[in-house]
Specification:
This protein is α/β, with parallel strands linked by helices and about 500 residues long. Helices cover about 40% and strands about 15% of the residues.
């Protein structure tokens, strides 16, 4: 099957997002309905406002129309606001603590999942809703055992024990699980040799390991695992006929999950995560970032389309934190070079992962120039290639010391896009809501408020125990627990996709 770049950009990625939204008069009547039957919580993990801005600007530049989320912002039937994102121990959060605020309504120490340092386990959204017979689902482009989906469901002292999180999913009874992470379910890859695929099948789950198997799923429960680690970046996915055949998109997984969960008398909760936006921001990877945001917005459209037809569904669209603050800068006389710089993204055919995998560990400058032009469509200068071939010129910087940062600085000469770091940021983040109960997400809201807001739709009220920063620190100090790097090392270590 031949897949052309024009067809992917036109009818697929940017093109699909440019479809006009329905002109609905839902503002007043929708506002009178305070309770939703279904909740779809969409997370563009690590999305800074610059990411949303550049996707919108690129869509307008190439196609003369706004991106999907940008267009949604202007609709009278949605509510827009911001969330603050701090964790228990820092104004800058990691994804585990951030998702746990949604999952338990309490601030958690970065790196933990719905659990305090003394071992106190907090009741989670999926636990409480499952007891009320509300159906639940988690969909992601990361490993399904990654921090954000786990934050809605799991109690664990650390996000890093993904084999353990996989077993917790089986015990949790979550109805639909879709993402990557074969290594955490396959007996041949688990250190305990437990065959979780078989265990899920025995528990009544349809098990799918490819796009074809996912599309064929029938029944009400499913475990879909489509890659050994995280799913591929969308820029790599859309440029590979094999991946297009074998690996579902986030929109396809979301549509399948909704189809499986809908129809229950008690309704459903579905979390949809575009995880690789965060990974790309960590790696200062512009093509990875832009195209995964496009793929995420396509999944958001699936959720909104369902909610419009259904009439009883609340859709929340937000992120857990900013990351790396990517920004299109003014460049050239009258800043006239900025748009041309951003337009270069349309010629990029690869993530940094694919590029660096091809280059190997000690590539020569000539090979670097050749590969960058082939993968990213940019002919860098010989002296710039020499910087990549040698020791990082920013080796002493805690923010720009790696090879990815060096490449992003060089490419910034051409794209006019720069990054503040490869780390999470403290930014307040955008939140858009549609459907019954959307008003709760207006203005600047704390991330912990979403827990009670969601439970209220099912007439459930639950207060988890609280712990202050001082109390948590005292316990951690007594145990001599040291902080890591907020999960950054794990992000970057696992971010090269094994797409088997």
């Amino acid at each position: 099957m031949a897949i052309s770049r024009r067809s992917v950009l036109g009818a697929g990625a940017l093109g699909a997002l440019g479809l006009a939204l329905p002109n609905l008069s839902l503002g007043q009547s929708d506002g009178e309905k305070r309770r939703a039957k279904n909740v779809i919580f969409c997370v563009s993990d690590g999305m800074s406002l610059g990411t949303l801005s550049m996707v919108d600007q690129l869509s307008r530049l190439l196609h003369g129309r706004p991106s999907y989320w940008a267009e949604l912002l202007n609709q009278e039937y949605v509510v827009n606001g911001f969330q603050e994102t701090r964790s228990l121990n820092s104004v800058v959060t990691d994804s585990a603590a951030a998702a746990s605020t949604w999952g338990s309504g309490r601030r958690i120490w970065s790196g933990a999942l719905n659990e305090f340092p003394d071992g106190t386990k907090l009741r989670t959204l999926t636990q409480l809703l499952g007891e009320a017979k509300v159906r639940t689902g988690l969909v992601t482009t990361a490993t399904i055992t990654h921090a954000t989906p786990a934050g809605f469901c799991v109690n664990a002292p650390t996000r890093d024990n993904q084999p353990f999180i996989a077993t917790q999913y089986l015990a949790s009874g979550v109805d639909v699980l879709m993402g990557g992470g074969t290594q955490y379910f396959d007996a041949s890859k688990r250190t305990d040799k437990r065959d979780l695929f078989s265990d899920f099948a025995k528990a009544g789950y349809a098990v799918a390991k490819s796009r074809e198997e996912m599309l064929a799923i029938e029944g009400s429960k499913a475990l879909g695992i489509y890659s050994n680690s995280h799913l591929p970046y969308w820029v790599d996915h859309m440029n590979s006929p094999e991946l297009m055949r074998s690996t579902p998109t986030l929109a396809e997984m979301s549509r399948k999950a909704i189809d499986m969960l809908k129809g229950s008398d008690q309704g459903f909760l579905l979390q949809i995560e575009g995880a690789k936006i965060d990974h790309a921001a960590h790696g200062n990877d512009l093509a990875g970032l832009i195209y995964d945001q496009i793929a995420f917005e396509a999944a958001v459209k699936v959720a909104i389309d369902f909610a419009i037809e259904d009439g009883e569904t609340l859709v929340v669209i937000t992120t857990d934190h900013g990351n790396a603050s990517p920004t299109l800068n003014g460049a050239g006389a009258g800043y006239g070079d900025s748009e041309a710089g951003l337009a270069r993204v349309a010629k990029m055919k690869s993530s940094y992962d694919r590029l660096f995998t091809e280059l190997g560990t000690e590539p020569k400058a000539a090979k670097i120039r050749e590969s960058i032009e082939a993968h990213l469509g940019i002919a860098i200068k010989p002296e710039e290639a020499e910087l990549l071939a040698g020791k990082s010129p920013f080796a002493s910087s805690i923010f720009y010391g790696g090879r990815n940062a060096t490449l992003s600085v060089i490419l910034g000469n051409y794209t006019k896009v720069t990054w503040t770091s490869g780390n999470h940021t403290s930014d307040h983040v955008l939140c858009t809501a549609f459907g019954p109960g959307k008003e709760a997400f207006h203005g600047l809201t704390p991330n912990v408020a979403s827990f009670a807001n969601i439970l209220a739709h099912y007439d459930i009220r639950h207060e988890n125990p609280k712990m202050t920063y001082e109390e948590a620190k005292k316990i951690r100090d007594a145990k001599n627990v040291k902080d890591g790097d907020g999960g950054l090392a794990a992000h970057l270590h696992a971010d090269v996709c094994d797409c088997d």
